Amino acid sequence: MELQKTVGLSAVLALLAGGTGQVLAANFYVGGDGASDRNPGTASQPFATIQKAASVAAAGDFVNIRPGIYRETVVPASSGNKQQAISWTTAMRPTGATNLGDAILLAFEDKEVDTIFVLSDGQPNQGKLPSADAILNEVRRINTARRIVIHTINFAGARDFMKKLAEENGGQFVDY
Predict the structure, then answer these.
(1) Whole-structure pTM over 0.70, yes or no?
(2) How many structural domains does the chain have?
(3) 101, 134 contact by CB (below 8 A)
(4) Residue 57 backbone zone (phi > 0: left; psi -120 to 50: alpha; other: beta)
């Protein structure tokens, strides 16, 4: 099975650092001139494959996928690895602060972003936008012109906020 992304599609995957109250973001880049999986994944020396970026990205990191065609092998999820993922996420427990606002604002800074994925295990309560209402209001203000699609994945505690964030921004909401 091949994964293809065509010219004009750019995405940022934002994996938030749960429980730290901080956005621990490294930015990795995929595609463009001089792309190679031997590169460090910087803007000037990007990775060639999405898989390479996925293998080095950690919680809090952003993966910027530049326009292009990516032919990569995609391994379909089996019932076994789906169950492992469900068990892992079910065992997760909120441990403190959740700083969604700063992560979302950081994603909006990249002018090539057209899609944001927000994963959270709790209500926002830290950062420049420390509440669900503050985040929703700021995203409405910024996203009127940008029209960035925002998908949300909720693990616990922020269901109404995450659902509204996705619905207001053309995204899909998933609740675990």
Answers:
(1) no
(2) 1
(3) yes
(4) beta
